[in-house]
Amino acid sequence: MMKRNIRLKIEYDGTRYQGWQKLGKNANASTIQGKLESVLSKMTGESIQIIGSGRTDAGVHACGQIANFHTDCSFSCREIKEYLTKYLPSDIGIVTADEVSERFHSRLNAKQKTYQYRIAIPGTVNVFERKYLWKYPETLNIEKMNKAAAFCLGTHDFLGFSSVKKTKKSTVRTIYSIVIEEEHSEIRLSFTGDGFLYNMVRILTGTLAEIGAGTRDPESIFHVFQSKDRKDAGITAPPHGLFLMNVEY
Amino acid sequence: MMKRNIRLKIEYDGTRYQGWQKLGKNANASTIQGKLESVLSKMTGESIQIIGSGRTDAGVHACGQIANFHTDCSFSCREIKEYLTKYLPSDIGIVTADEVSERFHSRLNAKQKTYQYRIAIPGTVNVFERKYLWKYPETLNIEKMNKAAAFCLGTHDFLGFSSVKKTKKSTVRTIYSIVIEEEHSEIRLSFTGDGFLYNMVRILTGTLAEIGAGTRDPESIFHVFQSKDRKDAGITAPPHGLFLMNVEY
């Protein structure tokens, strides 16, 4: 029998969570997926399994995570959104809930994602967003960062820019754009690509920060593509500055 | 002997604090003033007393609180800012530190202040700023609020819009402007005046919210001015939506 397929757009403050995904080995950890499944299962009386567009690491935030789930319930999308809004913790918000075709799959159909990383400019003050900014201590040269970012664009094997262990799966990804903007008291890096490996945005950000600080050359990007060795890339920027902004289908 | 006079512009997240002012009866409570005095006294080896432009209540925030203190120390303003930035908790930030004339007094010389109050629009999602928004459950009619706000402008006895107990001090204040803006997922009310009584901005906001929700008439403002009775005004909006934005001298 055909089930309804509901798509959610979700915003969350990842500070308190062990990431998006419920993990087999640690099924009791607090995850966004776990919170959603628990509230939806209570609402429907079914054992709801929710499919996210992809994982986000512990401490990483989202403005536009997409997820879907199948259900036999007869609640309207509006009722589903209202029920979730009422019973989810205040650090998880439902932006939209829509009924979609039975074939829609949040992960498999994702065509492109955008992540944003926020770095505080040294000497500036922003106490209200302090939990969402990486306090990198050096002044960054955006011109150098842009030069290095251009080297990252296109299709490459990003294994060296990831925390992926030996795998048979492809580690080739395509980055369509990296936009670096200085706004108010911060520098924002926006990465758009067809997909990102484990820790890839955080390692790219850490590497670009070292390049902006002058402790690494823009050309060192090529070396990492060649060696495919994580040790040749820069530090992993901390999770609290990272936001999954948007998923395109 | 003449002491140096240092003026600070301070930003703080008031969530964790019992307000700006150290109170005699509760000298151990956590206050912004107390934190500043403690760090400055340690830095200078003097017993520093800091003068704020005015109190903010427990839970109220500031982007532009002004304070000054006198000292014999020889640290530069830059060193003072850096020391404070290093040793203050991360929810208190020093925007600027400047040396001013010995006659400058943060409270007595204040000519005008601006407060902003932020109300979330029902049904919208903003998990990242959830601690700074009042979740008022009703949809607000901004036209009605603007009509009532216009009645508040000018010089009035605001006793009925305050939590001030019987006092010999004047409760007459002048409001120069009230600007109500809808931006993204929130409504922002900005109040500029020559000074505000205890709880006055929060009671004005609560009253304007009830007027926007339609449970109170704009003309009820006049009744409060006439009766001077707190019971005739609306509810006191909670502290977490309120920001001291600016003090003019």
From TrEMBL, chains A, B:
GO BP terms, alphabetized: tRNA pseudouridine synthesis
Entries under CDD domains matching the protein: PseudoU_synth_EcTruA
A Pfam family it matches: PseudoU_synth_1
Coiled-coil intervals: none
Enzyme class: isomerase
Keyword tRNA processing tagged: yes
Residues engaged in binding substrate: Y115
Active site: D57
Catalytic activity: uridine(38/39/40) in tRNA = pseudouridine(38/39/40) in tRNA
Record keywords: Isomerase, tRNA processing
Pseudouridine synthase I TruA alpha/beta domain: residues covered: 11-106, 149-249
EC assignment: 5.4.99.12
Molecular function per GO: RNA binding; tRNA pseudouridine(38-40) synthase activity
Family: Belongs to the tRNA pseudouridine synthase TruA family.
SUBUNIT field: Homodimer.
Function recorded in the entry: Formation of pseudouridine at positions 38, 39 and 40 in the anticodon stem and loop of transfer RNAs.
Entry-linked NCBIfam families: hisT_truA
HAMAP family: TruA
Name listed for the protein in its UniProt record: tRNA pseudouridine synthase A
Gene label: truA
